[in-house]
Design a protein that fits this description.
This protein is 0% helix and 43% strand. It has 118 residues and is mainly beta.
Length: 118
Amino acid sequence: QVQLVEYGGGLVQPGGSLRLTCVASRSIFSPGARVWYRQAPGKQRELVAAITSGGSTTYADSVKDRFAISRDSAMNTLYLQMNSLKPEDTAVYYCNAPRSDGSYYYSWGQGTQVTVSS
């Protein structure tokens, strides 16, 4: 499987902003949505935001109006603009493209750590 690489995380103060980027090591046929997930210590991975090939977006209630997902026209690069960050946004952030059967088109990458702390 082709792996994804996420970057752009870091340490930021509450109220700050970060922009995450996700790229694939090579392009593969992967129709459907692209999704950002996050996993905080001791918690399950959760969906943060998703974008379809048509540009429709979905957000978790906890990040709505603060985060914005976008992608390039070829769906090769995925972005997550995170504004008004809160300590509860601290997590490792991952991206992937889910299949209808629950599997994923890509192997999971290492993720990028986002830490929100004063």
